[in-house]
Specification:
This protein is mostly helical. Helix content is 85%, strand content 0%. Keywords: Membrane, Transmembrane, Transmembrane helix. The chain crosses the membrane at residues 40-60, 66-86, 122-141, 147-168.
Length: 198
């Protein structure tokens, strides 16, 4: 038993100093930032595609003003959200870590706050606007369908919105927050290593 305690004590004293070079850490962090930028750009392109897809609905001959009002509300909501996503994307692209580390870290923190605002306050504006737009849009469409199909479509639509607003939204917020916080931590460590070298 004493031998085990002795080995355990030796093991506890033994620490391995794993140091990743600043260059390797910088490459990894830049790769992570590029991934976030790419995802941000894909979100913007997806929203732009949705905007034009919804606008294409006006090519059909709808008779009710509610349908046109619904399409308009949805298009405005998508347009506003796309502009907000674009402004968030610009926060990430306006500075480079290698040119000005302090400014870049500050822009990452601003991006983190902006994303938090996007997922909390602005998300509800978007969800309410989409819901209102869908209600207006479906007034004319649903009137041509049987009652059970109407109820099914309404149930699926609101069920999907509730699912996205609760489980999916919380998971995305958590993942996004952790990913950006980790990036900020990496860049702060890299910045501190460069200061130590100087």
């Amino acid at each position: 038993m004493q031998e085990f305690d002795h080995i355990e004590a030796l093991w506890a004293k033994h620490t391995v100093d794993v140091r990743i070079s600043a260059d390797e850490m910088l490459k990894q962090a830049k790769k992570d930032v590029n991934n976030i930028r790419t995802k941000s750009l894909l979100n913007i392109l997806g929203m732009g595609f949705s905007f034009f897809l919804m606008a294409a609905l006006w090519l059909f001959d709808f008779q009710s003003w509610t349908t046109h009002a619904g399409i308009s509300i949805i298009i405005i909501a998508i347009g506003v959200y796309t502009i907000i996503l674009y402004k968030n994307h610009q926060i990430l692209t306006k500075s480079d870590f290698t040119i000005n580390p302090t400014e870049f870290i500050a822009s990452l923190k601003a991006y983190q706050l902006s994303r938090h605002s996007l997922y909390n306050r602005l998300y509800w504006f978007y969800t309410i606007a989409l819901s209102l737009g869908m209600i207006f849009f479906f007034v004319e469409i649903l009137s041509h369908l049987e009652l059970w199909v109407q109820l099914l479509l309404i149930g699926i639509s609101f069920g999907w919105m509730i699912f996205c607003s609760t489980l999916v939204r919380k998971a995305v917020i958590k993942r996004d927050k952790e990913r950006i916080a980790l990036l900020i931590e990496k860049f702060e460590r890299i910045s501190n290593q460069f200061k130590e070298i100087e």
